[in-house]
Amino acid sequence: MARKKGEPECCFDCVPCSEGKISNATDSMECTSCPEDFWSSPQSDHCVPKKTEFLSYHEPLGICLTTTSLLGTFVCVVVLGIFIHHHSTPIVRANNSELSFLLLVSLKLCFLCSLLFIGRPRLWTCQLRHAAFGISFVLCVSCILVKTMVVLAVFRASKPGGESSLKWFGGVQQRGTVLVLTSVQAAICSVWLVSASPMPHKNTQYHNDKIVYECVVGSTVGFAVLLGYIGLLAVLSCLFAFLARNLPDSFNEAKLITFSMLIFCAVWVAFVPAYISSPGKYADAVEVFAILASSFGLLVALFGPKCYIILLRPERNTKKAIMGRGTET
């Protein structure tokens, strides 16, 4: 009831309650606000639970991203099986088979970690998603960086007086470098989780009648350092591979690495503005898309040509053929 000014008390207007408020009694003088997780019904006579929104496994977008993630994992397993089965062939041995195996395992982890971004955010998924993402990608990029450095070292060792350069890039040194680079990211994630851990958050600012479940990163600086470290290693890998791009074709993995890292960097440069401007579940979808796109880019660019030769052009999978391409060039 809204009384009319200057009129007798019996004169009033019937005014509907505003959104978020209800009145379930006749001739009520005021409206009652709904609790935080509730909203007014269309008739404004009772409160109803607010709708919830998050990137779900049951909606088309979530199903598409989940299917793509599992497909990428399956392709990694298949390629790993091909490489293990043909581990003694020249093209696998010439491309540093141990690091290639480790790179495929890390790519599989990259595909799987994207599943943590789908589903209702919980404390453990919010804490684990970015840590798993950061460590998996650093392990992946570290393998690529070390492979590039080995390519340069092998080429230097083939020149007079350059034999000593290979002693710094033996199997132990390669594994140790990957371990140290990955441990730095693990330390960054640990400090981030201890100091300002990501937490699930119910956001009601986007829609008054809807609760958007999301993970707040906790520390923007921590998230920026995590991405920045991945970017630093990616830029170094791209730089070293670019320097080695004109080496003889027997060392042509540098060309594949250059192309793959350009794809990787392009995806993550485009990710930042898209992530900042995307609200709610679409921010998670953008991050998952960036993870899947960059992972598929690395997988196809680095292992596609090798699988093509192994499976469809076995006559080129010989030491003579590999060295012959370098001679012709």
TrEMBL record:
GO MF term set: G protein-coupled receptor activity
TM regions (residue ranges): 60-87, 99-119, 131-155, 216-244, 256-276, 288-311
Entry keyword set: Cell membrane, G-protein coupled receptor, Glycoprotein, Membrane, Receptor, Signal, Transducer, Transmembrane, Transmembrane helix
Chief place where the protein resides: membrane
G-protein coupled receptors family 3 profile domain boundaries: 61-326
A Pfam family it matches: NCD3G
Protein localization: Cell membrane
GO cellular component: plasma membrane
InterPro entries tied to this protein: GPCR_3_9-Cys_dom, GPCR_3_C, GPCR_3_Ca_sens_rcpt-rel, GPCR_3_CS
Keyword field contains Magnesium: no
Mode of membrane association: Multi-pass membrane protein
Family indicated by similarity: Belongs to the G-protein coupled receptor 3 family.
Protein name, as recorded: Extracellular calcium-sensing receptor-like
Native source organism of the sequence: Solea senegalensis (Senegalese sole)
